Amino acid sequence: MAKNKKKIVILGGGFAGLECTKKLEEHFQNDPEIEIVLVSEDNFLLFTPMLPQVASGMIETRHIVMPIRTIIKKAIFYEGRIKNIDPYGKIVNLWGSRNKRGISLHYDFLVVALGSETNFFGMSDLEKNAYQMKTLNDAVLVRNRIIDMLEQAENETDPILKKSLLTFVIVGGGFAGIETAGEIMDLLLDVRKYYPNIEREDIRVTVLEALPNILPGFSESLAKFAQEKLTEHGIEIKLQTAVTSFDGDEVMIKKLDTENKDAVDDSKISSIQSKTVIWTAGVTPVNTIKRSLFKTDKGKIIVDDYLEVAEFPGVFAVGDCALFLDPKTNRPFAPTAQIAEAQAKVAANNLHAMIKNKEKTKFGYESKGQMAIIGKRTGIASFLGMNIHGLLAWILWRNVYLSKIPTWDKRFRVFLDWAADMLFDRDISRLKFMRREPEKEYQVLDEVDDVW
Ligand SMILES: Cc1cc2nc3c(=O)[nH]c(=O)nc-3n(C[C@H](O)[C@H](O)[C@H](O)COP(=O)(O)OP(=O)(O)OC[C@H]3O[C@@H](n4cnc5c(N)ncnc54)[C@H](O)[C@@H]3O)c2cc1C
After folding, report:
1. Using a 6 Å cutoff on CB, does residue 148 contact ligand 1?
2. Confidence class of residue 448 from pLDDT cuts 50, 70 and 90?
3. What mean pLDDT comes out for the span 173-188?
4. Which domain holds residue 146?
5. Residue 156 needs a FRET pair 20 to 30 A away by CA distance; which of 70, 79, 101, 208 works?
6. Is residue 105 lining ligand 1, measured as CB closer than 6 Å?
7. Lowest mean pLDDT among 16-25, 92-101, 304-313, 442-451
8. Is the CB of 14 under 6 A from ligand 1?
9. Residues 172 and 299 in one domain
10. 134 CA to middle of ligand 1, Å?
11. What's the 48 CA to ligand 1 centre distance in angstroms?
12. Residues 216 and 273 placed together within one structural domain of the fold
């Protein structure tokens, strides 16, 4: 090992962490003085834009995850959950468990890319009773839940109970919520033929959105088009509507008063009888960040123009966990994979510049466009300054996102899944996975704090 070897540690194997690792590998491929280490809880990259299609059974579960070891070249990978970061001692500690040692990693340079988790805004009943759409586990649970509800509703004789079993409420009208609603409706309509006692009118899919429009970030006309198409497809959209509670049987909702936000008006409160709520209404950085020594705002790490943490030179934060204000709007950038990857590239370039005593560059971002699919072979896209919708946008979405999957093997498998979906019905077998318990941090047993 070279004496003055410098170690760059990247935390998080999502879009930002992996992109940064790849870029650093390019910069330092033949440099024996630089060691690159990537740490992540899962040993794969989750391709989130296709998560709703896993929930609808269109794509096989494992086809939207790419093992990190098949993508990285020079970096050393640790599968582990980060316990804490000590930016003064330049140490990252990993949790131990019955089967793995708790270890500590020293770093010279650090990139924090730990992403985000679902934000329930402190509503514990929703956290307990609602489904989510953030991890692979979430998508599998949602799919199983839908099939389970169909199985129960098919033989249910009480019409009220039957209706509530077949009512699916999606909270949040952003990317994740709208794409999930479209996919769920497609699944329900596709498989209905196997459930002869379920009529089209028995099925209800509702999207609740607190803002006055869905898909913020898209132009008004595209968002309107999406809303019209979803409504034609039978999806009910309730705007300016907030969820106040969900006990597992009934969703309490409140129509928001834009004029007087504090007004208490009982006529604006109503309920939906439903057994299944899918919460996609916001994300927040993971706890490891929130309880870190970094300066944060709404849980996100505050970074400077170079994506560096001002108090700790050599430490960068990128992706969903970093707070960088869009100079055009003076508001934080939306949490998207596109921005996460763009930031990762700049952070890697700046690290290279720092190590080679060159000038760092400021982060700037010009959107290349946005797209979403909304079910029934329909999409919307703003691309190269054009607004496209309908089948063309849906085809564009498929082409663009297929090309973004980082490995040929998974690209091919997703392509085959799409082709099979054109020819065959969806699989309605329900795998009996259990609902995940709220995550506990790993138990620390005889922790051996080696510094590796
Ligand atoms: C359903 C859905 C659809 C979406 N669709 C789009 C889309 O179409 N286009 C788009 O641009 N964006 C989309 N997004 C948003 C996009 O997924 C995120 O903005 C992006 O993943 C952010 O990248 P990141 O690297 O910051 O975080 P992540 O991709 O979340 O990666 C964070 C990584 O850190 C790891 N990690 C977290 N905590 C720990 C810990 N304590 N220890 C170890 N590892 C840890 C995680 O396991 C993960 O690997 C979608 C999101 C969802 C949920």
Report:
1. no
2. very low
3. 95
4. 124-281
5. 208
6. no
7. 442-451
8. yes
9. no
10. 8
11. 7
12. yes
- The verdict on the CB of residue 133 being under 6 Å from ligand 1 is yes
pLDDT, residue 77, reads 97
Question: Percentage of the chain surpassing pLDDT 90?
Answer: 81
- 251/312 same-domain check: no
Ligand 1, atom nearest to 12 Cα: 34
Q: Are both 145 and 268 inside the same structural domain? A: yes
- In angstroms, what is the span from residue 6 Cα to ligand 1's centroid? 28
Residue with tokens 């898909």: 215
Ligand 1 proximity of 338 Cβ (cutoff 6 Å): yes
pTM: 0.92
405 pocket-lining for ligand 1 (C-beta < 6 Å): no
User: Atom 14 (ligand 1): residue with closest C-alpha?
Assistant: 336
Same domain assignment for residues 259 and 200: yes
Residues 309 and 272 in one domain: no
Q: Does residue 182 line the site of ligand 1, with CB under 6 A?
A: no
Domain co-membership, 128 together with 277:
yes
The response to whether residue 340 sits with its C-beta less than 6 Å from ligand 1 reads yes
Whether 93 and 132 share a structural domain? no
Domain count, the chain: 2
Q: If you measure from the C-alpha of residue 58 to the centroid of ligand 1, how many angstroms do you get, rounded to a whole number?
A: 21
